[in-house]
Structures are given as structure tokens and as C-alpha cells.
Amino acid sequence: MTDTSPRIGLAPLFLKFLGFGCLAFGGPVAQIAMIRRELVEREGWTTGARFNRLLAVMQILPGPEAHELCVHLGVGARGRIGGLLAGLGFMLPGTMLMLGLAWLYVRFGVGYAWAPAFLGVQIVVLALIARGGERIGRHLLETRLLAAVGGIAFLASIVGVPFWIVLPVAGLFVAMWGRRRPAAWLGLGLGVAVAVAHQAWAGPEPGMAPPLAPTGVAEWPWLLLAGLKAGLLTFGGAYAAIPFARQDLVGRGWVEDGAFLDGVAFAGMLPAPLIIFCTFAGYVAGGLPGALAITLGVFLPAFAFSLLFYERLERWVETPGLHALLAGVGAAVVGLIGATLIGLGRAVAGSVGTGDRVVALLMFAAALAFVWTLKGRWVAPAAVVPGGLAGWAAFG
Fold first, then answer.
1. Total-model pTM
2. Region 222-238 average pLDDT
């Protein structure tokens, strides 16, 4: 694979990707298009064909694709130091803005002072998650087999089967389906047996589960682990991180569902990968140390893949068995997103007065129609702002 990346100083390289970070509005599609336009079409860092192959690799790996592309291109230009600087430059603007928003939110109790407006925002975010899940599903559920795996994962998650059972069983089932169908059914049966046993005798694993935090304050090492989980299991886009982040942050009592959804809303309006919502949730859960820890955990895998395995990525992605395994995991993640959406919807419904639930449902339907119809980088802000105003008028 020939790389035509120009020689560039470390400082100019950092500033170039810092500029990309300042303009990274509109989600991964807009971010990747911007990087392609500048580095492929205008500056000739690589060929269009190589960029497409590289993008295919990044889409198979977990983590934010645009950020991983920046790291990989930085490695190609100036080695591993270049990759580190490119990744830091791209993520820095959004991270700093999110830290500022989180500080304001916590310091001045914005979520409580403007509760009606934020309730409207949360309803809109549910529509954005539904739309994001549909887009991921359209990309990942390419066959009837994968659609069935996604549906089973959805049902399993609804009844409380943990992801560490669902994801491996789904991946192995799809990986074995094409070659050893009896073994695939046997593996599925064993997975169901483990799930049933877990549901019957589930309890906290000694030394593994972090303690509940009655005060809502989490220790930074647990937030680092939560970020690593989200970063390593984000297949198909940042919306795929929502189930795993919510399981740790909301499930442990560190963050309320409402604040969690507020973070997703802020992330959709900032120049950053959407997964930056974890930084907001980490700040709410554990202050600045918690925000930095979860952010490190989320982005560490995205740095590591290119910094450690730059030469091997394209060889790995050609392995058919790995392709099938990751396809099964991705299909299961789509099911987990659907189950999480239902859980978040119940939480929002619990915050709405009984007499206002019809209004909330109409707002959700209107927001869903809006985000389903329109396309472009400004859809999220264009939906969130009216949602906040509608919430203030309806629930204030």
C-alpha cells in the first residue's frame, strides 16, 4: 500500500488537525467528508482508493471513525508521534467545549433550573437516538441472519441479559454459521443456558463490580473502565456506545437518565465525535477527574489501534472469520441500542406528569418526523433548540 502523505512539521500537523476539530460539526459523515476534501482532494496526502480502503478498516473497528482516521493519517505523515498529535488536535476543541458546558451545568444547576426546557430536549434526543439506531441498523443488519441476531439481542437485553453474554454469543454464532452450522446452534444453545443461569442466580461479582455511589459521585478509576468499555464496544457509530455508557453511569446511580440525555444533546451540537457525551456524563458523575478519566478511556482504543497496529490493520480486516465475528457483534449492538432506547423512554415518561404524556408523545412524534425527513450536519441543533422551547412552553 503506497502512502503519498507529505512531510509536514509536527506543529503544523497538530494545528491542521486542531482546525479540523474546530469545524467537526454534523457527525461522522460530515467530519469524514471534510477530512477527505482537505487531505485527499486538495492536498493529496493519499489517493481516493486508499482512503476508501482505510475508511472501510476504521468502520469495522470499534470507536469514532473520524477520530481513528485522523490518528491513522497522522501516523502515515509523521509516525506515531504524528498520530498522537493528530488525534489530540481533532478531539481537543470538542472536549474543552464539553468540559465548559458540563461545568456550567453542574455549577449552576442548569438541569434543574431549566427542567421543563431540558425535558423537551430529552424527548428530541430520544428521536435522535431512534434515527441513529436505524441508520446503524441499515448498515449492519445486511442479511436476514444478522437481522434475526439483532432481534434476539434486543429481546435478551429487554429481559436483563448482560452484554458480556449477548455480544460474544452473537459474534460466535454468526462466525460459525457459514461453515459449521451445527456448532453454531450448539454455541447458541450454550449461550441461552448461560443467560438463563445468570438470570436465575445473578449477583454482583466479587471484586469486579464498582460500589453504588449514593451521593452520585464516582471514583475516577471506575469511570476510566466505563470509558474503556464504551470505546471498545462502539461498533457502527457513537450511538452504539449509549447502551454501555448508560449501563455503567446510570445503572450505578452516578448519573440520572435526564442528565445523561442532556449530555447526548450537547454532544450533537458541538464540533466533536458524538461519543464526547461521555465526557459530560463523567463530569456530572465525578467532576473534572471523572471527566478526564472517562474521556481517556473512550478515546484510548481509537489511538491504540493505529499507534500499535498501523502496519497490520488492513491484513486483519481481510480475515473472513473476523469479518463474520464482528458482523455478529455489530448486529447484537443494534439490538442493545433498541433496548436502551426503550429504557430511556420509560425514564423520560416517568419525568412527565400523567396529564402531559400525550403532549410528550406528540412532541416525540414530531421530532421523529423532523429528524427522519431532513439530512445534514445541522439537523441535531435544529431539532434540539425547538425541542427545548416546546418543552418550556408545555411543561413549564
1. 0.81
2. 85
